[in-house]
Amino acid sequence: MFNYESSPFAFWITRNSEPNAQPLFDTRITSLPPTPTLPVIPDDDSTALDSFQMIFEDRYLQLASALPLGTHIYGLGEVLSSSGIRRDIGTNGGKGTIMPMWARDAPDPIDENIYGAHPMYLEHRYNAASKRSQSHGVFLFSSAASDILLLTPPSSNVSLIEYRMVGGTLDFYFFSGPTPQKVIEQYGELVGLPAWQPAWAFGFHLCRWGEKTINGTIRHLEKMREANIPLEVMWNDIDLYDAYRDFTVDPVSFPAEEVRAFVRELASNHQYYIPIVDAAIPAQTSSADVYDPYTRGVELDVFMKNWDGAEYIGQVWPGYTVYPDWFAENAQKYWTEALSNWSNSGVEFSGIWLDMNEAASFCDGSCGTDADLSDTTLPFIIPGEPGNLIFRYPEGYNPDISGPSGNVTINGSLTYGVGANTTVSIERKDIVHMLGWDAVQVAPHAIDHEESSDETTVGPVKNPMLTKDGHSAADEGDLNLNAPPYAIHNGNGRLSHLILATNAAHAGGFIELDTHNLWGLMEEKATYHALKHIRPGKRPFIIGRSTFPSAGKYTGHWLGDNFSKWAFMYYSIQGVLQFQLFQIPFVGADTCGFNDNVNEELCNRWMQLSAFLPFYRNHNQRGAISQEPYRWDSVADASRKAISVRYSMLPYWYTLFANASLFGTPPVRALFWEFPDEPELFEVDRQYLIGSDILITPVLLPNVSTVQGIFPGRGRVTWRDWYTHDAIEVPAGGIATLSAPLGHINIHVRDGSAILLHAQPAYTITETRQGPYSLLVSQADNGYAFGTAYIDDGESLPPTDSKTLEFRATKHSLKILARGSFNVKERLETVTILGVAEPTTVTVQGKQVRSWDFIGARKKLVLHDLGLSLNDGASISWK
Questions:
Q1: Out of 345-359, 389-403, 663-677, which region has the weakest mean confidence (pLDDT)?
Q2: pTM score > 0.85 for this model?
Q3: DSSP-derived secondary structure for 525-561
Q4: Could you tell me the domains of the chain?
Q5: CA–CA separation, 461 vs 479, rounded Å?
Q6: Positions marked active-site
Q7: Strand pairing of 753-758 and 773-778?
Q8: Cα angle vertex 209, ends 205, 210, to 5°?
């Protein structure tokens, strides 16, 4: 319910069912005392921030809402947060949060803005008296540069959230929940539901920056097969290109015909290929240097402009560059042509990897119209070259003792740390200390407002646009678009530093200052539609770096240029949970880390963790030691085991993602999303749930052989070990110490669940899907269990015929219900039912059978050799 006062204007939002309860959002807070530690507008209007009143000025909007002390806020990203998944609101000595909304290229700093901008949060309020919780969500639909602050003013009985925007509009949406899952689903109804992923996307992906030849790429393929480590998708980084130019191949190292033969060999083995596409298009250096993607872009007039109408020049890997303008009339035509021509030339890709699409540039803003386009020298030394060699290793690893190979085992013994089988406790504050981030604060607010030589001042306030001939379309005031009067807490300082200049012009009169956060989304949308044209009827597969609300309709996401540190393995969980909120569920980190050298133990643990996150790719930096999973025997063994379990779970993963695409339901979940009335779970981000039924408890510390895990449900839920099916004995308080030797990741199954599995995990997804099914039923104490499975052909868009299965168990029976016209050829061969008393007879489809076993210690009934069709349902009973 929307409520308001007209003078002075203020509004507040309440639930229709609880109009007199504490508002969900309340701007009636102008009487709060001023907070002098907050940043102010560095101009004549600075006194406007002495209170938390609404402000509507040219290039500055401000609005604040009260929050209950101690409430729980999640979202507001993209960010790696030192406070965990719950955002700091300044209580209990915390400094609060300042979250800038400004996409930038930065290698995963902590507590700063990075690749995407998502001004959406979920608030979870717990009533200690009733011991019940309710959730709601708030979304500011704006691409404007902004700060969002969470803080608690001195001597105040409330906390607050404050929005400070450099333009744009205050366009708010509220989601009433009342559960965390409902909030996420309601947000998806607004911004759009996630794209359908092809089944093969859930396989293991492998990439390396610094792969010098196509033969080197082929060698990885061969070594993975020799080690029997499943590999679904092979990727190439910018090494593929000729002179780092998009839509090319190096004629010496990656000849087009050899690339074509390689990709077709992959396809013949049910494997796939993904190349990279960088955001920037190389500028043609001379008339003799004909580069078709540039000349065609000029012909179609699709590149961004300077304020004076000249081409906007940036700098990325190939040297000086131009940038597609996604507002241009012919932008989609241009992009589809470029990708089609590349595919036809031999790079017959299965999907596309979109990098650097914030969009990034190595210049501070515009490189200038007088740049020497023939100069391809980069302003830094590429990693791995003399002067920029990679010497850093994970926390605790000593290369002087163990050598530069990353090995942690010599003759079977660990060679560093506090000793094998010794548990080390590292808290979040210790992780921050290990990485040298003790003094990390939010980015400095003080910004140099002096103009650089290539900046221009225009009057953009009412209509900050430029006409097609490059002249100013506004006629009031003077404003430096590259340094607005209010400087947000951008981690790079100046808004235009290492990205596009904010006074760059788009078609239609738009400027980069107002549209910057949309750049990655618009490229992802254009790529999605191009892939639909190139591969008609097939689901486009895209992984992008910069995202904005609704990007999940088109793309998945990887968590950027992380580090080979134990801390960043932990941060990958936080990142995946964050993007479930943002309706971009197909997400994962560069497994084993991108920057720096990894070691054997960290890569072992990380390959296992990522096997139970949606997007599963190993990728690392040029010049670092190799980290393909076949490099170490222990990592190869851990990878085979984890991937086998992952592939057996594919029907479950696939169903979760079908539900995400149909309803917006998050596939990966924080524990409190499923158990919202258990406050001890509100900050847990070292464990997570896959769906509602599978609990993952990874090892996130070096040199340990046990891990502590909390088991939700407060004793009312039975959790069973995935591997042994034993029920876990949870002490009072719900925390148990679990055995976790190197190569083992703890997985537990919730009671009341029924999970369809692949019975015979194979080397590829296609081969796995062609094998038989099994069913795991974990009954609650009363015999209840329920589950669903969604099955289709795994690639069609829109999805063709499908089959939805329901599994319903009672104390003495299991019924399988089927609906839908898809023909499931594979049979259900095995059913395992946990939590049953020993039966004397078992019947299947009304007929008594003898092909079953019972293991009394585990209350486990296993039916073999069933050969049941899943097209018409089935019935099983026992007594």
A1: 389-403
A2: yes
A3: HHHHHHHHHHSTTB---EEESS--TTGGGT-EEE--S
A4: 2-179 (2.60.40.1760)
A5: 8
A6: 355, 358, 561
A7: antiparallel
A8: 130
